[in-house]
Amino acid sequence: MKFGRVDNPELIDFTLPKDHKDTSSVLKKSSSKSTNIYVGCAKWNRADLKGFYPRGTKDELEYYSRQFNSIELNATFYRIFPPEQFQKWYDKTPDNFRFFPKLNQEISHWKRLTEVKEVVEHYLYSAIHLKEKLGCLFLQMHSNFAPKDFNRVIDFMESWPKEMPLAVEFRHTDWYNDASIAEELFKLLEENNISNIIVDSAGRRDIMHMRLTNSRAFIRYVGANHASDYSRLDDWVDRLKQWQDAGIEEIDFFVHQNIEKESPLLSTYLIQQLNENLGMSLKIPNDDGQQTTLL
């Protein structure tokens, strides 16, 4: 992932911002007695996760899904797969596994939310074949998609089928540096029960809004292939513990790296910390006598 990449991460202040003032009120509406946590990488390809798979692994997804409980499914951004492919993915994975597919680029980047009803229906018709393993769909807008097109966002959010969980990522800084626009956006997401994705990337500290809009925290974490990646995750564990104590219902945390082969290492570290500090019992990847080394 090249988004927010920097050459000198040691010069960045990675301090997590304080929660947005309205995040606490959102959490009070949830007050869940238990928190579901899903942690995973963005891809399962052997070429991207070099060194993660033991020799002789025949099916990458089958192995991956028995190490992590979720995947951020970015492949669906580039093409709309047929229902049969989603069914195959469903059949290969354990009962507790969840997919978090990205909406197709025709919706977000080509048509930019305008006249997308048919393509959304086409996409969802295939994606629903994941059945209960469909975690949450997510929409990622182009970095040049600005608030001047806010009406497109309103129409899209209000027409989105409410039975389908959705999270949204905005990358243009004007969605957040204008308080009135930000508040209008957050209100829209809240009213439509849509999650506000938090992106933690070295070069884009300007979009760290720390504003939850429902009982799901959807975090896309981009490491810098630097020692600070781990201390940054420690800070996230502290924040997630606070949200857990406040009653958050679900945490979806996906780890990216500019050099993706290190993503499983970071994800494994995060899982270990969540088990220790949040009382979770998530499986430790490769903790089965087949520990591999990422080269």
Description:
This is DUF72 domain-containing protein. The chain is of the alpha/beta class. The protein has eleven helices and nine strands. The strands form two sheets. The chain has a six-stranded parallel sheet. A three-stranded parallel sheet has the order 4-5-6, covered by helices on one side. α10 packs parallel to α11. The longest helix is centred in the last third of the chain and has 18 residues. The chain is globular, with a radius of gyration of 18 Å. The C terminus is likely disordered.
How are the SSEs ordered, and which strands pair?
Layout (H helix, E strand, L loop, with lengths): L22 H8 L5 E6 L18 H5 L5 E4 L1 H4 L4 H10 L5 E4 L3 H6 L6 H11 L9 E4 L9 H10 L6 E4 L4 H4 L1 H13 L3 E2 L1 E3 L15 E7 L5 H18 L4 E7 L6 H16 L17
Parallel strand pairs: 1-2, 1-9, 2-3, 4-5, 5-6, 7-8, 8-9
Helix pairs in contact: 10-11
InterPro entries: DUF72, UPF0759_sf
Pfam family, one: DUF72
Protein name: DUF72 domain-containing protein
How would you spell out the order of helices and strands? HEHEHHEHHEHEHHEEEHEH
In the CATH hierarchy, the third-tier topology is known as: TIM Barrel
The CATH architecture can be given as Alpha-Beta Barrel
Q: Tell me the name of the CATH homologous superfamily.
A: Protein of unknown function UPF0759
- How many separate helices? 11
In helices, the fraction of residues equals: 25-40%
What best-fitting shape do the alpha-carbon axes yield? globular
SSE class: alpha/beta
CATH class assignment: Alpha Beta
- Rg value: 18 Å
Strand residue percentage: 5-15%
**On the 0-100 scale, what is the average pLDDT?**
94
Number of strands: 9
